[in-house]
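Supplementary notes for students who missed Thursday's class. We covered one full example, reproduced here. Read the sequence, then the structure, then the short commentary at the end.
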Amino acid sequence: MKGLVYGGPGVREWKDVPDPVIEKPTDVIVKMEATTICGSDLHVLKGDVPETPAGTVLGHEGVGVVTEVGDGVSGIAVGDRLLLSCMTTCGHCANCRKGLLSHCLGDEGAVGDAWAFGHYINGTQAEYVRVPYAETSSYKIPAGVSDRAAILLSDILPTGFEIGVQNGQVKPGDTVAIIGAGPVGLAAVATAGLQGAAKIISVDLDDNRLARAKEFGATAGVNSGAADWKEQLLAFTDGEGVDVAMEAVGIPPTLQMATEIVRPGGHVANIGVHGKPVEIAMEKLWTKNIGITMGLVNTTSLEMLLNLVAAGKLDVENFVTHEFSFDEFEKAYDVFANAAETKALKVLIH
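Structure (token representation):
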């Protein structure tokens, strides 16, 4: 079969690799129908994830059809169409029982780190993939849910919802600001209404992204490049500050922005992936009774979100802006990596 292989920093290639085989009774083999590219894949390619060895097939999101089932799997059959979670979880260890699926203590990849696909083991950007712990790491896709919709549920929608909306403790009637209108920030925009947010303000430097945010449910947009961006945003709250400020970029200035616009008693939910320390003005914040959260997605909301999509209550297909075939993987990476020019959100590769 072919797979998109990480060959070391800056090196990627769609090439022949060995077919996956059942290695453990809890495995299944899936023929991939669709996958996508995540910012985490770009980090691996840059060499920012040194634990990923050269030769690893990238990707941790996918939709496919089961072709082979391990002896220990009873709830999945050949022919089932599955959504693969970005987290590979055993479902029974101490962390899984607490709902901390991202810190599964199972033996795929690193103990305590459930991001296995495309990180420690071969991932989903391939014609076939071995799915460990299949019964607790994949979900049967209801009839009528397209690849375009399902692919968003592997990672970005649960991430935006769990780490932004749920961790931010969004309540009915809240005013929410989401800094960063990339795919994960827009996922938070799209799901904030599920918790009853009344005002959803998208903040970004790109007017095109701000316009897209309104398509996904934002009630207003603020360009953070404007000299008076903060005044514009606070005007939506009569100067009091937002109830919840979500950071979905992953750089120090945007997290600092979030702490400046949240009201006393509010919440800052960090979604962005930070690569260096961030200085927070604790001397100004400690008296404001602000909660600050961060985290790695546990995908505990994945089945619920899948049911909402299947019922037509959550429309996410428009996240996909570009489509490619498997033999166009290299082109797909170029388009996604240059999103500022191509206006790519998510690419669907099928």
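Commentary. The chain has 13 helices and 15 strands. Residues 156-166 form the longest helix (11 residues). If anything here is unclear, bring it to office hours.
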